[in-house]
Amino acid sequence: MVQHVVTFGEIMMRLSTPGFARFSQATNLNITYGGGEANVAISLAYFNIPAAHVTRFPANDLGQAATALLRQHQVTTDHIIYGGDRLGLYFLETGAAARPSRVIYDRADSAFAELEPGMLNWEEILQNARWFHWTGITPAISEGAAQSCLEAVQVANKLGITVSADINYRKNLWQYGKKAYEVMPELVAGCDLIVSSIGDAADILQIKPAAEAADPFVSVGQQIMQQYPRIKKIVNTNRGSISASHNTLAGMMWNGQQLLQTPTHDMVPIVDRIGGGDAFMAGLIYGLLTYQNDQQALDFAVAASALKHTIEGDANLVTVAEVEPVMQGDSSGRLKR
Amino acid sequence: MVQHVVTFGEIMMRLSTPGFARFSQATNLNITYGGGEANVAISLAYFNIPAAHVTRFPANDLGQAATALLRQHQVTTDHIIYGGDRLGLYFLETGAAARPSRVIYDRADSAFAELEPGMLNWEEILQNARWFHWTGITPAISEGAAQSCLEAVQVANKLGITVSADINYRKNLWQYGKKAYEVMPELVAGCDLIVSSIGDAADILQIKPAAEAADPFVSVGQQIMQQYPRIKKIVNTNRGSISASHNTLAGMMWNGQQLLQTPTHDMVPIVDRIGGGDAFMAGLIYGLLTYQNDQQALDFAVAASALKHTIEGDANLVTVAEVEPVMQGDSSGRLKR
Amino acid sequence: MVQHVVTFGEIMMRLSTPGFARFSQATNLNITYGGGEANVAISLAYFNIPAAHVTRFPANDLGQAATALLRQHQVTTDHIIYGGDRLGLYFLETGAAARPSRVIYDRADSAFAELEPGMLNWEEILQNARWFHWTGITPAISEGAAQSCLEAVQVANKLGITVSADINYRKNLWQYGKKAYEVMPELVAGCDLIVSSIGDAADILQIKPAAEAADPFVSVGQQIMQQYPRIKKIVNTNRGSISASHNTLAGMMWNGQQLLQTPTHDMVPIVDRIGGGDAFMAGLIYGLLTYQNDQQALDFAVAASALKHTIEGDANLVTVAEVEPVMQGDSSGRLKR
Amino acid sequence: MVQHVVTFGEIMMRLSTPGFARFSQATNLNITYGGGEANVAISLAYFNIPAAHVTRFPANDLGQAATALLRQHQVTTDHIIYGGDRLGLYFLETGAAARPSRVIYDRADSAFAELEPGMLNWEEILQNARWFHWTGITPAISEGAAQSCLEAVQVANKLGITVSADINYRKNLWQYGKKAYEVMPELVAGCDLIVSSIGDAADILQIKPAAEAADPFVSVGQQIMQQYPRIKKIVNTNRGSISASHNTLAGMMWNGQQLLQTPTHDMVPIVDRIGGGDAFMAGLIYGLLTYQNDQQALDFAVAASALKHTIEGDANLVTVAEVEPVMQGDSSGRLKR
Amino acid sequence: MVQHVVTFGEIMMRLSTPGFARFSQATNLNITYGGGEANVAISLAYFNIPAAHVTRFPANDLGQAATALLRQHQVTTDHIIYGGDRLGLYFLETGAAARPSRVIYDRADSAFAELEPGMLNWEEILQNARWFHWTGITPAISEGAAQSCLEAVQVANKLGITVSADINYRKNLWQYGKKAYEVMPELVAGCDLIVSSIGDAADILQIKPAAEAADPFVSVGQQIMQQYPRIKKIVNTNRGSISASHNTLAGMMWNGQQLLQTPTHDMVPIVDRIGGGDAFMAGLIYGLLTYQNDQQALDFAVAASALKHTIEGDANLVTVAEVEPVMQGDSSGRLKR
Amino acid sequence: MVQHVVTFGEIMMRLSTPGFARFSQATNLNITYGGGEANVAISLAYFNIPAAHVTRFPANDLGQAATALLRQHQVTTDHIIYGGDRLGLYFLETGAAARPSRVIYDRADSAFAELEPGMLNWEEILQNARWFHWTGITPAISEGAAQSCLEAVQVANKLGITVSADINYRKNLWQYGKKAYEVMPELVAGCDLIVSSIGDAADILQIKPAAEAADPFVSVGQQIMQQYPRIKKIVNTNRGSISASHNTLAGMMWNGQQLLQTPTHDMVPIVDRIGGGDAFMAGLIYGLLTYQNDQQALDFAVAASALKHTIEGDANLVTVAEVEPVMQGDSSGRLKR
């Protein structure tokens, strides 16, 4: 496949209680498959950007079913490898109003966690790619996953492919004996664009806003760019949590020259909050590949993420034709006949 | 049946994705049967106004099932005729927040579209009726449907029965070679009451607000009444679309003397937006048959429509006892034990 | 079981239409089992307060299933007795926006209604209890239920156990020939704490606010305490009904010295409104058993009740760890990973 | 309606566990409405025999929903009356293999049980009927139901309408102080045709096969005809129970001259066993109204009943075109495209 | 893709009632997508034979969803074209015991039916294929479909690709003015292998068994091979219909030298009978591509078809590892842990 | 609790595809919780034998939900301990006819597998027990589980409690470095009764039938009793697999004097085959505790197991009153009203 986006990361089976049922009430669970990076690939496929996802699944029916979901959504699965013992899982209970949604992870010892360097042939995988995307979850899972990710970033850099990362910090991961700040800097150094909150920058890159900074996000962005000269854009979203059913969302980007900001989108009711950040990332990649300027790309990304909150499951199953009106300010949701 | 309302139009099988699922996600579809005019008949039956619906179904189990739905909701089905090849269908995906609901129609070549003049014995059908209702969808479907509708209006006029129409303009229909403005005027001329937006009046009747008009709706209403002297009331609703989950609704009527308006109803969350206009129409017919004055009828119609937005399916399955408190301003939704 | 709370009252099978379906649409019904007092016991069990519920079920599979639900939620069922003809039922249709939820009761002649004095050995049931809770529904069901309740209150008083009651008045009950104000005072006289609105106090205790009272609730509270010297706290909730999907809630308590009040909680969307008052009661008992002061207890109770509105079914399946942030003002519902 | 069949009896809400779930496992129940006599009416409507059902429902949404089910299946509901307290219910758990299906009745004090003589205007109800059908369940429910049934039989006899009864004996009913053999003979005396097993004849009519009889069914039939000269046909089915999932069925009739018998039908798997007898009865009425001879009527009745065992719910939703091949020996179930 | 099987034909949305519900009972329908030739492609993909399906879908969400189903099951969809008005549909009601399953087709004017010669670039589509498969349904749908099929067969013959056809005759199709025997011979002449019953041969090829033939199937086979010299194998299945829930199946092949036959498989219970013939065809193609001799291929084909009857939906989602034991006589269905 | 049965073993969450769906088709999974030994406890509770289950769950909502299922079915959960990382899982796909059911285990590193000696206080757990039951699965899971089991057997022997084991051999387990025949003999030596097939005896105890033996099962039994003098009864079931939907079952016991055998039960259709052996074990314990002789106990056990095959889920939710008729030869499954 020519000129496509490659994403890399774990995919879990997601088992969610129906409606607003609690774990203690459920007698069946809805299943789908999702992961931060695969969600980006699926969303890009819906935007008609060719996308391939790279991961490792167990060689059983559940690995096959997860693969099938990607194929169904038109993501290329040719580079997925099979082996190991189990598919990672997560259990989801959907909240409402003042009750948060809750996630129970069961991903230890997954086929992906047991990745080892050299298992994936990145030269071949990335040969025709134009963009490589990873997230901070992957290096947090296991040493092997971190090393595989580093291999990929290095090959991408060598091939001159754009590299993006959502570096988000998950404290509960990082159980294999290394700290995020020990592992991440080398990976981040290979990126052209990162999504990072101020908190993530502190936890992962040990960079904090200067005390006197006019805008703390700009301050962090400037320091990051200084230390990681490959990085050209630092992006973040600003989520307001009125309740589990009602959030607001805006995006911001420091591109070295300007602090760009988007209007704030009101998201109510929230149908499914999972994958909101991944939808933003996919929108951003689409936007940067398509539009003339960063502002449009950022506007598209936030609009895409806002729509994700209306979609069941992890992935943002919306088209460009659906995002564009929202990006242009029409959130009226008028019936389309 | 003595002194009942007769409605005429196509009924389709409605196949809707469960919850907020997209078409690409659904593995099953909820089914019901609906159509703009039949929805009016069902709602009237819930208001204890005897109602009969006239249509044409294929002579198969799906036509039988659609008939059964009408009977279940106490609509008289004695005048339905059977023949032709297929039942019209529509597929519905329910939106939320900034994501619109979407409809895919599959109604070409339906049993109803293949209606031909003379197939329906309107003298017999209307002999004891007191009201005949049709909509702008019917003449848009096919020449035969348009001619059947004209037969009905003419017989109704001859028998002195009140005729109402919701003349709404669906650009995507009107595929059989005639324009709306070629067909509709003769039909509208037989009406006592029409529901029409300013846009519909322009598209269908080629009447636009006078440039200097104080109120454009009144201006249109006055022109319509001048050209179509049988018409005594022109009615419309004003829908505000905050999102797919949150709309507002108000009604207005020009009765030749006054411009009547209703309070604005806040509808959040919207359970099912389809059939909101039909619920308004049924409420209006009920109100005009029951109340002493136009204002009450209009208030009842808007309250009925607001309640429809909480009902799954096309038809407004609410009683007068449920509409009246809302009409009188109580939208508190307090639990009834 | 040492030092537990004992609740007493009828449990019904609850048959609710799925989603927002009307009774006329449903082809299946969700079932659970609930009752005002049992809901308190289940909620307390989730708060890790040992709780036992006392009731009477028919000796059939439905009585067994209702018992199993209590056991599933860790409520002690050792004192439930079996006999009589039938399990009480109620049918529930969930409303939205301006359409209220509706309940159809079918509880006449239930096993519980046919309780007779002496059937329950209260000395044994209450021997290790520290709290006994009943509601105004029980004495309204039948003379036998009222007398059983009086037996319980009297034994509890003898054993020095705290007694609480939610005295709410249900006009549609009280069919067995006695009036609430004839039966309730003797029962209320045995209470240490009651939940009562101003209206309930008037209907049941024939106590009305003094005309000149600065605060009518305080006025009623003072009169009640005068007439019923055992009572030390009078509590109530203030519910605002914006729509069936959006309520507000605050609590108030007169403890003989102070009028305590809580912040107002915004509850939107409401997933299930049934059992909101019972969740408040359970929160109050938990709070009074746990916290140092009445204000905290009251704050906990209102926060617990607010969360109940997000839980499907009658009972409040939330833990203390979930209530405490809401009690402390965090209603943001942020995803818990 | 001219020349139709009238059936009379209680209709209950049926609440059945999904699949093969036990009562202790179910979290939802499928609902439909059924009763021995109404099942006959629905089946006749599917055979294009106009049918009207007479019963009494409570004046609430459940009574309306039960009425709607009859209307949906094209049964006339004009003579249903409304009042009383509750709708009778029954709970059903579907068995398999060696595990029987189980029914829990909850029908005491239903609107139908509280029928009183004079509530139904049988002269009007039966004025254009050609057949009246009742069963032994009705007089077992309450004295009022028995008396209403007797009124109906007497009016039918006066008007010269054919009367049929399935006299089956349900030991668990008959709780109102009278014995079946005290009440039934007067009712049976008004019948032209009865369905009765040898056991029913003994329990209800106190008639047993003569010790020396060549065929005990013929012996019973001859005695019944002697004592009840109006009766011209005595009919029965012979069910073989290999398991809950596999039964066999054959029919027999004594028509005063001949003992007619049908081939034995193999019924495996059984989808829903409830209403098998009612489907037989409807088939018999259809057959006797349509065919030239008793043998064909009996063959049709057994074939209809065999098909009922493949239909979910109480009523036999099959057409004549579906029964006829089975009646003629084609049970191959070959796909119809 | 190198050396794959190409199938060509219409895919319809299949809407089936849940469980054993009748059309008149269903309130929702399960959806999947299927068609005789696509079912072969999916089954081959499960057998790890690369397969591509060629068809035409409308350019809407339903066409996308149908495409996604093929991709999910690993069928190549690169050659599907989009256009036209609608997706063909069929409604399915599943029978049991003596009640047949029933299909209502609604496929007129589908995107596929409106295929026109030249729309598909067969040179490109077939360039690397080793097998092309079509069925008698395609030329029955429309003149354009028939001509497209002929184009494909001619290109396949030119490229030396094996051509197979299941020539089954569907009397209800063939509505476009030509008879099967006018259109089919030219198509059959391009085949290397056909599946044909004796009846199909008579209806389509006007070839009947010789009166004196020892084996009528061999007689037909010999005549076919004489008239259509390219054909090397004529294959058929022999289905015994004990009931809708219980069938038997055996296969037979005339390969010009021998009449091969398989053991008879007992299929009970039948989960889903649709696609049984397509599963046989896929098994036959797999077998002929894999095994050394025709007998094994035929044995595999029948075993595969037997397993299909246990799979929900149109397509046979079983692997070679699952078919082989059944082919070797192990139908014990012992639990695999 | 006085004089109860204690069972010990892992409980997994079971995730099963609905109906006959394959893993590749399912979009939701039914959940329940089961394990060989817990299934025995639940079944005994339904037989009114007090039962307690001992296991280890993770301290999260899934561990709570599994505990709740046991409590719901009246099993005592007081001795369950909490800790470790995860709940073991298994995925189940239900077969039919020639297609086997399939299980995918995901139980590595479960809370139970990480049991260590000393974690469970067996003196306290068993102090009032009369029977302790374990299976060969537990020592196969991990060294810690094996040692915990040995502790339990030794304490039981010391306290004089009857010990039973179903020693079944699961080749796929036993991954922790020891062989079954190294670990099991010491455990078996503490048993009073074992369930063992001839194959299990060979694999686990290295005992094979004598070449010249009249009955191989008796031969094995005699050798076992010689080597393990505590054992008084050796029991087995004989399952015939006609298909995944149709099995037969008989039981046999060598009690040192006699070879007892039961009639063969025909099980068709099989609703759920999982737990059939556990249901047998529970029936056997019940029978030996209740009946006068081994034959009755064995007959009860087989009848109980036959009924299990009609119950959804792992556990046998049937009562003694349901088993007894089947034990006495009535498998007619006649409807119970």
Automatic annotation (TrEMBL), chains A, B, C, D, E, F:
<keyword id="KW-0808">Transferase</keyword>
<dbReference type="GO" id="GO:0016301">
    <property type="term" value="F:kinase activity"/>
</dbReference>
<dbReference type="InterPro" id="IPR011611">
    <property type="entry name" value="PfkB_dom"/>
</dbReference>
<dbReference type="InterPro" id="IPR052700">
    <property type="entry name" value="Carb_kinase_PfkB-like"/>
</dbReference>
<dbReference type="InterPro" id="IPR029056">
    <property type="entry name" value="Ribokinase-like"/>
</dbReference>
<keyword id="KW-0418">Kinase</keyword>
<feature type="domain" description="Carbohydrate kinase PfkB">
    <location>
        <begin position="3"/>
        <end position="315"/>
    </location>
</feature>
<comment type="similarity">
    <text>Belongs to the carbohydrate kinase PfkB family.</text>
</comment>
<protein>
    <submittedName>
        <fullName>Sugar kinase</fullName>
    </submittedName>
</protein>
<dbReference type="Pfam" id="PF00294">
    <property type="entry name" value="PfkB"/>
</dbReference>
